[in-house]
Amino acid sequence: MNRPGRTTTLRVGVIGAGIMGADHANTLRRAVRGAEVTAVADVDLARAEAAAEGARAYDDAFALIADPDVDAVVIASHDSVHAEQVVAAVRAGKAVLCEKPLAPTLAEGRLVLRDIGSTGEALLSLGFMRRFDAGYMQLRQAIDDGTVGPPVLVHNISRGVSGAPNATSEFSITGSAIHEFDVVPWLLRSPVVEVSWVAPRRSSEVHEGLQDPQLIHLRTADGVLSTCETFLNARYGYDIRCEVVGETGAISLTEPARVRLDAGRRHGIGYAADWRPRFADAYRIELQGWVDSVLAGEPTPLATGRDGVAASAVAEAVITSMHHGGSVTKVEQ
Amino acid sequence: MNRPGRTTTLRVGVIGAGIMGADHANTLRRAVRGAEVTAVADVDLARAEAAAEGARAYDDAFALIADPDVDAVVIASHDSVHAEQVVAAVRAGKAVLCEKPLAPTLAEGRLVLRDIGSTGEALLSLGFMRRFDAGYMQLRQAIDDGTVGPPVLVHNISRGVSGAPNATSEFSITGSAIHEFDVVPWLLRSPVVEVSWVAPRRSSEVHEGLQDPQLIHLRTADGVLSTCETFLNARYGYDIRCEVVGETGAISLTEPARVRLDAGRRHGIGYAADWRPRFADAYRIELQGWVDSVLAGEPTPLATGRDGVAASAVAEAVITSMHHGGSVTKVEQ
Amino acid sequence: MNRPGRTTTLRVGVIGAGIMGADHANTLRRAVRGAEVTAVADVDLARAEAAAEGARAYDDAFALIADPDVDAVVIASHDSVHAEQVVAAVRAGKAVLCEKPLAPTLAEGRLVLRDIGSTGEALLSLGFMRRFDAGYMQLRQAIDDGTVGPPVLVHNISRGVSGAPNATSEFSITGSAIHEFDVVPWLLRSPVVEVSWVAPRRSSEVHEGLQDPQLIHLRTADGVLSTCETFLNARYGYDIRCEVVGETGAISLTEPARVRLDAGRRHGIGYAADWRPRFADAYRIELQGWVDSVLAGEPTPLATGRDGVAASAVAEAVITSMHHGGSVTKVEQ
Amino acid sequence: MNRPGRTTTLRVGVIGAGIMGADHANTLRRAVRGAEVTAVADVDLARAEAAAEGARAYDDAFALIADPDVDAVVIASHDSVHAEQVVAAVRAGKAVLCEKPLAPTLAEGRLVLRDIGSTGEALLSLGFMRRFDAGYMQLRQAIDDGTVGPPVLVHNISRGVSGAPNATSEFSITGSAIHEFDVVPWLLRSPVVEVSWVAPRRSSEVHEGLQDPQLIHLRTADGVLSTCETFLNARYGYDIRCEVVGETGAISLTEPARVRLDAGRRHGIGYAADWRPRFADAYRIELQGWVDSVLAGEPTPLATGRDGVAASAVAEAVITSMHHGGSVTKVEQ
After folding, report:
1. Nearest residue of C to residue B71 by CA position?
2. Which of B224, C28, D110, D182 is the most exposed place for a label (fewest CB within 10 A)?
3. Given strand A72-75, what is the order of strands in its sheet?
4. Any alpha helices (H) in B92-238, and if so which ranges?
């Protein structure tokens, strides 16, 4: 039993005080048991200070990593620096929750794993939050329970309101569809072995450099085919769907709205504007699971470094398919 | 104005007294204005008599076609004899509503059109009833109105409870997916120019000769990509879906259930067991539209012979893709 | 069997060429088998001519009733003249479909029944179209089948966009809630024996003379309690709901939309603006059922004159309750 | 800022180790930040020990209250002893979260408030968890925002699978409908001033001593009418609904299912078997809000003792109405 008045606390440093990092700091401070935010780092020190709410602020991620009052690190910095920060933090013996991606390319992701070794891997978790969304968890349970029979097809749809103005067709794959590349093999408990890519008509609402929407096929080792529509600029709302079709039934996510409105000749529910409200609860549960596992010295319930590399390998194969006219492409695992 | 007590009536002969033919005879007799069923033909005379309900019964389709009390013919016989019956009826100067397909193969369909010539074509309607389903009609109107912006993608799903025991992978395309091959270009007002085929994991519930489900891509001339999942043995219900994704929104069919049940810890709606209750109203409206246009001497509002040949051309290209490892295949129009 | 080229036709005269009468004439002419509109009457002759589309036009309902080319009469005139027109038509030996109400008051309705006698009653049908709505028919079938166990409660909601500008609290009962007064005993196969009335907060959007919304309780002889919310000016859409709560489950109407729209951060279906599109199919089926039964010389499948008087008796009791502070009031049957 | 490695923690004692108490202990231990369960009491010591998970176990609630390692107390014991435990805990200067009801009767509830005085009231929170359900919170926000215009009517439905075998008609009011008696004035920000009660047909599935379902009307001071159907033995599922009807629209709770299943000819969502999964998240948020407010020394965001007494006053008036043939009854506030 804990001594009254005192409890074991994980002292967390958050690297990156942008939207995602600030959200994580807030969630850790307000809704996660057993965590304390002791430091925040950002290249913009003022932003770090604002997010720190009185904790230490750094403009240097490596200084935060070295802080003895930081037991564990959340990495929510720019994608391009994830790899070096992960390596540094793991080498400093600190548990790390790194937002996806682990590294900008598959090759670099593999280098990180090689650099940190199996001991380092045990300290590393990847932030694929959909694994902690109540809907996805129920889909996975239903598959395990045989509720719809053995799966034959999975249909994924990922639509956003508006992508980043400079988003490229490749970014749509590595930055958005990568969530499906992680969640599909996690649902099916089977790795993606083959992919292909195809272009629907391009929306005239986006700049010429971006194919939006895109349609991707994933083949997992179990033979199941998964379709993934990724549409960054669907305009109407942030809409994430997943349907698992089995031999005897089908099961799918519902939009997690809690109220229904009748107004202006219409009946229905509202969409979130972006991923943050849609997955707020998934982030909270993910962070709690991470803190609990670190404090207990148990294996992470989150995606691992290897899961992150696997998703990057799928992304790379999809980009290859895109660059080769949609040809069916093997995933190098 | 019609003279009181009398009205112009189209005297219809129905060829084929199976489920579909008997349904059509009943609908014409009970729910279609301006039609009278004066004869029914079937190779099984007893079946013809049962469906005739007192009208003349034939065991020979050509005798029915020759009957002077038959002004117009509905062909709901076996697919293999549609072509010769269409040619005979049209040559006899009678309006024809032929259930899909016009002929078993694309080549034979084209021969029918050549044989009947443009005068004959004006007498011919094809039975693609989805064009008369309230949901599909609203989707088409919404596209025309720009409700969701210009379309970029269309997702079609067609699931049945159980296919015919001897259904082949080719039949799944020519007998079931052909509805999508007609409805997609009709919705988009653009012909299908290119297709490809891919196999999901095969359901272990079906015999080895059948790939079920199947996934088909259609590319229309406007650049829009349409996906078509066809699953004959989905077990859980007869479930037809169509979603049109546009540049600013998406619009989709709803299941046309009229009541919702709360029972046994579940809340929801029921599915039809097959296509007949699902599309009963579409059949009625189609038959009324056909009868009205024939009586008025106006062009058919139904699919034409050319539409039927166009759908067969798509089917043939999809089969070619299937036989060639899913390669992208041009449609010969 | 009918003689080829000819068929028995019911020659219908329509009295009242307002919205409802013109709709009925159109439906009879375009979508009902076995009917012909041979005459239309309206106090405004030009309106009668427009609705007649070439058939005879009268400015005198009694002249139409006397027309030998009119076999049967649809009465869609002003409520205040229904009674006298019904009596005249029935006395002329013509089948009558009278829009609700049969008469402005219960006493007058009873007089009509006395005047026409049992022979006349056999010629009379009342237009309570909800009995022919697919949803209500399925609710009734479900009750008969015991799908939800014996009913204990029925919840009815009837909301419109905007009531007539001069609508009174009494009109809300006799003109709108009367549909529930007919449909509830029809669903439960048990007459309404007791009622009470209560006022929610009055919408500030309506004039002072109108209590809107209203809430009414009906007790049927079987002990079941039915609640009826009537809200003429609900603004957001025409929304008709009915839920039957049984001992083991509940079953309710769904809104009969056929498409679902994703646009502007919302997902959902549209409402009809008023009762005509919502119940268009019910009207068609009701008219077909009426024509079929008259031609066949069979009892009407529609509501009868007695059903109409029963509904008026409920309305009168509800008005009494309203005038007496919501007291529980017996229905005089 | 907290000192690293240490954090302020609220040491909570839980009285009552039944289903509710054990749930609260678990939630506090696993999902609430800033709380520690230092003691559990139950008349059944073994049950207390099981729920304590290593913390101190008592068979005497007053011993737990006196424990210096208990800063705050959750009371989830039998309803009959809430009052004395609340008084004792408050007098000991400890913050209290008491499950509803505060006391078995209105008179006893008022005595508690008199006994503890205003200082004691500041320490007391009542466990009406629906105030922390995301759906109810959004309804309230929508009312505040004028999303549907000023409310005119609220429809509440509360259905369970099966009530306690010895439940009485009075218990249905004080133990179940009391949630609506709290949530309706909280939603509308207006107290209940008048009530009435009416009996639907009694379900034959329940024993004679219980009127189930029941229908209750509440009138709040703002003139809005709220209907409350309470059906303990609805069999089909645990189903909580609330619809707020305003002058320009309506807004209602959706069932918070996260997946939709297609199986066995049906499409839809599942119901919880009882209130615990349905409101699990509301309990967690309520407990977190309570702990945060106690640690911060801020007023409780939960229902207060006065709110609890107000709900009891409504319950008492409803019972009076039930005992007097459903007469409209004033609430003594």
Report:
1. C5
2. D110
3. A56-58, A35-41, A10-15, A72-75, A95-99, A124-127
4. 106-121, 134-145, 169-171, 178-188
ipTM of this complex: 0.95
The pLDDT of residue B148 is 98
φ/ψ region of D26 (left if φ > 0, alpha if ψ in -120 to 50, else beta) reads alpha
Which residues, other chains included, contact D259 with Cβ-Cβ below 8 Å and sequence gap of 6+?
Answer: A135, A138, A139, A142, A251, A252, A253, A254, D269
User: Are C44 and C17 a contacting pair, CB within 8 Å?
Assistant: yes
b/e for A100-109, b at 16 or more Cβ within 10 A? bbbbbebebb
**pLDDT tens for residues C177-211?**
999 999 999 999 999 999 999 999 999 999 988 99
Read off the tokens for B278: 């699902």
Which residue of D54, D262, D281 is in closest CB contact with A1? D54
CB-count exposure of residue C299 (10 Å: 0-12, 13-18, 19+): exposed
Cβ separation B270–D267 shorter than 8 A:
yes
Q: Prior bond to A104 cis, omega within 30?
A: no
- Could you give the CA distance from residue C152 to residue B228 in angstroms, rounded to a whole number? 45
Whether the per-residue pLDDT at A42 is higher than 70: the answer is yes
In this complex, which chains have at least 3 CB pairs below 8 Å with chain A?
A: B, C, D
CA A250 – CA D265 distance, rounded (Å): 11
D interface test, pick of A143, A259, A285 with most D CB neighbours within 10 Å = A259
3-state secondary structure of C194: strand
Q: Find chain C residues with C-beta within 8 A of B249's C-beta.
A: 261-264
Global pTM reads 0.96
Chains touching chain C, criterion 3+ CB pairs below 8 Å: A, B, D
DSSP β-ladder status, A225-231 and A214-220: antiparallel
The answer to whether B328 contacts A326, with C-beta atoms less than 8 Å apart, is: yes
Q: Tokens 């790939």 correspond to what residue?
A: B211
Sequence-distant (6+) residues with CB within 8 A of D241 are D155, D156, D157, D158, D252, D253
| Of residues D122, D24, D2, the one with CA closest to residue D76 | D24
**Are residues D269 and B270, on separate chains, in Cβ contact within 8 Å?**
no
Backbone angles phi, psi at B278, to 5 degrees: -60, -40
Measured over the CA atoms of residue D34, residue D39, residue D44 and residue D46, the dihedral's sign is positive
Question: C95-126: per-residue pLDDT in tens?
Answer: 999 999 999 999 999 999 999 999 999 999 99
Average pLDDT, chain A: 96
Nearest to D248 among C151, C227, C236 (CB): C236
Neighbours of B, requiring at least 3 CB pairs below 8 Å, are A, C, D
Cα–Cα separations (whole angstroms), residue B1 to B5, B7, C55, C56, C226: 12, 10, 7, 10, 49
Nearest to C195, CA basis, from C212, C173, C176, C213: C173
| Residues of A in Cβ contact (< 8 Å) with C236 | 262-266
**Nearest 5 degrees, angle CA C316-CA C319-CA C323?**
140
D156 φ, ψ (degrees, to nearest 5): -115, 135
Averaged pLDDT, groups of 10, chain C, 333 residues long:
53 97 98 97 98 98 98 97 98 97 94 96 98 98 98 98 94 96 98 98 94 98 98 98 98 97 96 94 98 97 98 98 97 86
Torsion sign over Cα A130, A133, A136, A140: positive
At residue D333, the pLDDT reads 73
Question: What count of residues does chain C have?
Answer: 333
D240-292 pLDDT, tens digit each: 999 999 999 999 999 999 999 999 999 999 999 999 999 999 999 999 999 99
Residue in B273, B193, B154, B178 with CA at minimum distance from that of residue B230: B178
Measured between CA atoms, the residue of chain D closest to residue B268 is: D268
Residue of B34, B139, B257 with shortest CB distance to C254: B257
Q: What DSSP state is assigned to residue B261?
A: E
